[in-house]
Specification:
306 residues, alpha/beta, Rossmann fold, 2 domains, 6-stranded parallel β-sheet, 3-stranded parallel β-sheet, 12 helices
């Protein structure tokens, strides 16, 4: 089998063009969307994504303000800025670019054992400082609760941009606008590798709330599956977001799998071997990344439209 490779750049550009009219209308009404981003400069991935988001925002006439901090700065400095942005009537949405955990630990001079709890605590303080009506990246814990309860849309909240990107790529992979109906009817199972708040948790919660079959596993569960030679053979869809390069190989997945790679910075899938088994696969770079950027812009326009 030779996999179809989903071109995230091409798909994102199609979505961006569809946003142009909405953005134009908002500007004409005197309601131009403005996104404010909090960036930690030591993280190269965050810096790159911030620039890509700023460029796409500018192409749509969406304001994109960047406020830079160091990982070593007292967290109160960034929180103070977030509180100011919460009160700024011109700002539609606020995003905190989450630095890669290893970058954060190294910059702070901490080991994984000593620093993991501190990292989680630091991140929690930042995302909970964002007022819910401006949570443009959908990362506030209360937004996750709404996703779990299936009430996020009714409450005027938005999905995390990476989660939304994966959903849109799956719609494309299956040629199904009614994705959840399709997954239920076919009894397809999604296995999500990684339990982060950026993707694993919200995607799992969304699929569960839509009564789709899904399992979210971490490194220990995957290790156990490998030892038992079960691998990921029960998965019709594999979504991997662990940051462990070439973690998933072709021998671990079944023929015809839909393989979505959310790994940073180099990709979780051993692309060449997985592509020989998969029906559809996303590359890194050029797959989920561009779709995440355009999903954030869609979220900004959704919040601006109220």
């Amino acid at each position: 089998m030779s996999a179809i490779i989903l071109d995230g750049h091409q798909l994102a550009e199609q979505r961006r063009k569809r946003l142009e009219q909405k953005a134009l209308l908002l500007r004409a009404q005197g309601l131009p969307p403005v996104v404010a981003a909090v960036l930690f400069v030591e993280d190269a991935g965050s810096t790159l994504y911030t620039e890509l988001k700023r460029q796409m925002a500018e192409s749509l006439g969406i304001g994109y303000q960047v406020y830079s901090f160091s990982i070593n700065d007292p967290v109160e400095l960034a929180i103070k800025k977030i509180h100011e942005l919460n009160q700024d009537g011109q700002v539609t949405g606020i995003i905190v670019q989450k630095p890669w955990r290893q970058t954060w630990l190294t910059t702070r001079g901490l080991t994984k054992e000593k620093g993991d709890f501190e990292y989680r605590q630091w991140w929690w303080q930042l995302v909970t400082a964002i007022t819910l009506r401006k949570d443009v990246d959908g990362l506030h814990p209360k937004t996750l609760e709404s996703v779990q309860h299936g009430t996020w849309k009714k409450e005027g909240k938005v999905l995390p941009a990476t989660c939304k990107a994966v959903i849109e790529l799956l719609k494309e992979a299956f040629h199904a606008t009614q994705l959840f109906n399709h997954l239920r009817q076919k009894h397809f199972k999604t296995v999500i590798l990684g339990k982060s708040d950026l993707l694993g948790q919200p995607l799992y919660a969304l699929l569960q709330s839509e009564e789709c079959t899904a399992e979210m596993i971490g490194s220990q569960e995957l290790k156990s599956r490998i030892e038992q030679k079960k691998f990921l053979m029960d998965a019709d869809i594999v979504v991997s977001a662990t940051g462990r390069n070439k973690l998933v190989t072709g021998q671990m997945v079944k023929e015809g799998v839909i393989a979505i790679d959310v790994g940073e910075p180099k990709g979780d899938l051993d692309f060449e071997s997985v592509a020989t088994k998969a029906a559809v696969i996303t590359p890194v770079p050029g797959g989920v990344g561009p779709m995440t950027v355009v999903s954030l812009m869609e979220n900004a326009i959704t919040l601006a439209m109220g």
